[in-house]
């Protein structure tokens, strides 16, 4: 990075830049939003602890992520994804060494430079605790509780997905305690879901083997969103084949 850009960044990330705190758990996928629509002219750049990690401009040849932007720096490998419409940045499978300041710079030629700073911190949760929270093994007919592991912020929108199909949503409006059914909600869970509005926990009752799979929780905040995954495996009631024969 040359001296000129360094100076620009220092100016941008000074008093004027919006600062957003982002708290995640290891293994999460986090998306940092630009809140702009990329146009032909403007340029969006992302810096991590002052090294450039992503850039998108009107020229597709100048769009880059990670090592392409910052020669010899392999820190994110293929965990960065840049949305070409908005310039928003997704960091997948975040690790504790990814914490720090992510700086966004939006340059509109001969008009303005604006920016945001995302202060990303990683929850202090041990691998064993995380495993217990995110990997559930239950027997057919039982209930399972998927706990987000954090207190719900009042303005967050929490959306639960099963194999990428929306199950249910918890809105940020504290006056409304009603669960919102997703438009194309999966019928298989009809009358079997309960939500804890304090924590955002999802309880699935009377579980069956077809409920085995990957559950995702999306937590949408102002300026960013987090995707956290849970795996549920359901074992049949009987494991001796002869007792499993149904009439
Ligand atoms: C991008 O690069 C390719 C090959 O290097 C070149 O043919 C093309 O014209 C370039 N596109 C722009 C918009 O500069
Ligand atoms: C996430 O990263 C860890 C190492 O930090 C790795 O062991 C794990 O396999 C990765 N998970 C996915 C889904 O890529
Ligand atoms: C980022 O957040 C952490 C945890 O809240 C805090 O200790 C740290 O000072 C913050 N960094 C900046 C530059 O604001």
TrEMBL record:
UniProtKB keywords: Signal
Keyword Signal recorded: yes
Pfam families per record: V-set
Signal sequence interval, chain numbering: 1-17
Record-annotated Immunoglobulin domain positions: 19-123, 133-235
Database matches in InterPro entries: Ig-like_dom_sf, Ig-like_fold, Ig_sub, Ig_V-set
Name assigned to this protein: Immunoglobulin domain-containing protein
Organism: Cyprinus carpio carpio
